[in-house]
Structure formats: structure tokens, C-alpha cells
Amino acid sequence: MTLTQLEYLVAVDTHRHFARAAESCFVTQPSLSMQVQKLEEELGVRLFDRSRQPVTPTTIGAEVIAQARVILQQCRHLKTGIAEQRDGLSGEVRVGVIPTVAPYLLPLFLPRFLEKHTDVKLSITERTTDELLKQLKTEALDVGIVAGPLNDPDLTEHPLFYEELVVYTSPQCTLFQKKYAVPDDIDPTQLWLLEEGHCLRSQIENLCQLRRKAASEGQFAYHSGSLETLRRLVDSNQGLTILPELATRDFTDEQMELVRYFQAPAPVREVSLVTRRHYARQRVVATLSEEIKAVVPAKMAKAGRREVVELK
Hints:
The protein is α/β, with parallel strands linked by helices.
């Protein structure tokens, strides 16, 4: 059994066609077919049902392919880890960031990071938490920046900072007259929420014990994927919303007058850098973590007496 045979095996499973698998591996179809057949003879089992189109793995073939993917992944990780230790931090790092973190965190740390680490290419995309985690597990992404805790055994979380959640309210809401907010003050009929799929929405529903029905009552329902849109709705003297604290860093004095902090213990979200378990590029993880922690406000370094809001 060789790594080449395992690569051919996985390619056939991916493409479900011997000719396309051979093309993806830059070999002839007879060469690929011969190696797969040799592997089957060595193992004493048929790995593919060739009588069907597209070609499909047999039951035992599916199990062997799953193990082959793990072996090949570990080999890639081994090579990458050794190269990084030998040559230093370099190459492409694919990073996924949730939309409620990206516009506020990236401008803080990106210029400093890119200036210091000129041999690194950061490829950054915004994804909802569910999409980001799927891409991490399929190796379409290397690193994710998400709000947790996730408690997923297939992933490793590296907490970065703890960000308070604050209320942004129009003067027309009764909450505007109060110095501090408590979750019971939140009227679900006046609350602007992100659309389904955003972890911040889940955390807000959990914090305020909102019933979806109550939150949807009223004359006008609006589903947004942007915190900035929700903020602008409040600015137009309508309702209230809940924002992460970093979103208020560029607020004017007039806008800060509309911010109400929660009464202690203040709710916070835990923002973490997430990788697959046993991700080999630990130097990347450490460097990204250090650079992000260096630019966020010091008070966000620990949860302290504040309360981390769990995902629902």
C-alpha cells in the first residue's frame, strides 16, 4: 500500500469517474486503474462497484476511503508543519470570519499583521458560523474567527477576547430613559434582530429568552444580515438592537448617548480562533492570536465577572 495508491483511491471517490480522477492526478487512466486494482488485490476486497455509473464505493470501500482521507490529511499536515518550522511563517492562510466580527476586528489588526509578516498571504472571507465550520472541517478554510463557545469535539478553540453586548436604543423606547439595561427590559416587538444563521442572533435570543413568535409580532418584519443596517434603523428613531461592543468604537458622541450597557454581570460573547483538531500550522495559530490580542482593548482580555452568553 502506497500514498500514491491512496491518493488515486480518494480521487476516484471524489470524481466518481476513473478518467476524470486520472486527469485530476495528472496520470493516464490505465495507470490509475492499475494502482487501484493492485490496492484491491492487496486488501482482498473490491473497493468500487464498476458496474454502476457513476462509479460508487462498496460498503467496505467507503470505510477504506474514509481512512485514506485521514492518512493523506495527516501527511499534508506533517509536511506543512515541518516546512513552517524550517522556513518560518509564510504561504497562504485561508481565514473565515463571521460577519458580526469582520468589519470591526479586521481594520484593527490587518494593517499591523501584513506589515510585520510580509511572506504571508491572508485570504479572508466572511461566512456565517455554520458555513464557516463546514468549510473548516472539509479543509476549505484553515482558520475561523467565530463567537462561541462551540464545544465541537472536531475543532479546537483558542479564545481571543470577551466582548460585551450592549443595547442601542432610539429615544422613543422606554429603555432610553434608563441608565442600565437588564434582559427583561428588552421588548421583543421593538427589537431588530439579524436573520437566522447568525450566532449573534442565537446569543441574543438566549440572553433575552425571546420567543420567536413574540419577536416577529408587529406591523413590520425585517430580516437583515448586517448590523449596520439594524443600527441605521435605530438611528431613524425606530426600536432598538443589540450590538457587540467593538461595533461602537467609531460612534459619535450623539450615537454613544443611545448606548445602554447591561447591568452587572454584563453579558459577553467569547470570540475565538478555531481550527480543526490537530491542525499542523500551530505557528500560524499562535501568530494570529498574538496579533489580534495586541489590538483589542485590554479589558476584553478576560471574561472576569462578566457572563459569557452561550449559543442556543
